[in-house]
Design a protein that fits this description.
By secondary structure, the protein is of the alpha/beta class. The protein is 17% helix and 42% strand. The longest helix has 10 residues.
Amino acid sequence: MYPDHRTISEEIVSFNVQAESIFNEFIDDATQAESKYLDQTIVVSGLITSVNVENVTINNKIYCQFESLNNDLKVNDSVAIKGRCIGFDDLLEEIKLDQCSIIK
């Protein structure tokens, strides 16, 4: 009846994209981008623009939520983050990822 909990860190990546590229897809046509990326395991690459206790923001456009975060990350570090796309926040104009892990 209820599906098993997904372990995103162990799943095969559906898309490997740059932060600017995926953001532009959502800005150009949010409906099409959501049908492509929503609930998919993706890797997003870019520069860290914000680091908090359990989240990182890439290029001021991709919000990445972690269950536990490595404190070695710094603003302006180049990074690739794997996570599940949970949607686009129209108000903040950010793409949201959860269950994230650092790839590089």
